[in-house]
User: Fold this.
Amino acid sequence: MMMSRAFRMVGISFVFALRAFSFSEEDRPTLKLENDQAEVVVDLGGGSISEYRLKANSLNPLQWDSWSFNPRANEEPPMDPRSMGHFLCLDRWGSASEAEKARGFTNHGEATQVWWKALPDSGTGDGKSIARMRAELPMAGINVERRAFMESGSPVVVVKEIVTNNNPFGRIYNMVQHPTIGPPFLDGYTIVDSNGTRGFMQERAMPNPEETESRWPRAFQMDGTEVDLRFLEDDPSPNVVSFIIEEEIGWVTATSPENGLLLGYIWKTEDYPWLNIWRHVKDGKPFARGLEFGTSGLHRPGYDLVAKGRIFERPLYRYIDADEKQSFTYAMFLAEIPGDFTGVASVAYTDSEILIVEDGDRARQVSVETFDMFSDN
Assistant:
């Protein structure tokens, strides 16, 4: 595979492309990673993975933009960094305290509020395409470096992120991946599946929200009735439900039979022990679903995380010492599916294959070619 490189200064960011490069002053700076099977676009204004699509199916499941939540009449979306598609919550997941808000902290941390810089040692060789980028979070006193790579013949994208604490002291923090699916991939027939197990609704009051326990894929609404979280039609209650992963590998999938496409994520539970499911309806129709996996399952300020400590024997935060580095890895994949596919019963992987087994009696199998996703390469 041939590669072309191009560099251009745009404010405080680089634009870097693998194989293809195009830019106009009206466009947002992006980094594109692709091979013969799929392509990924990272928006450097916040570091979001804003596009992920197969070459054989042009639909982007991550078609979501935070601007659409609060658009201002007769205004174009700003060039400022913001969250889109799959974004990173760092150094927190959830709300800041009132004192932190007064100092400028907002929900989900700074990662989507700063410009990311593409690093020049990205490239292609030995059948592998690699893209590297970095973000500095000045208020949090940490930085994050991301390395995304693909191998020829596979639509799988592996992402490794390294968090460094630049503070002269240790601190707690959280890191949650926030893949967000939206229409047209998301509709009333889209099916979300996972190997999450025990869970609780974020709407339940502290200090013991887990007292009313859910079991995937069921959750209780505030009136005590059950809701099936695999689907979203016209009722977003409960809004966020969090589950633990009890297997060594965690996974979540979103299946759109109408579009013949499946999006999936797979990760080591030691990196991300929690799965958080966010649902949002707008004008009576499914508008967004968050398939959020990370280090926490409690959407609260730091003082509540420390006071609570654990839920279902799982920690609610990470500790990172002065000058320490901590790394996290996940893989994302796409697969074409039949129009009558009924969802996912299981996901397993080897060094050469991701095997998806259909839910229900037919138990059809869909195979995605892959590689050694969790090596140190």
Observations:
- The helical segments are 98-102, 302-308.
- DSSP finds two helices and 31 strands in the chain.
- The first strand starts at residue 9 and ends at 10.
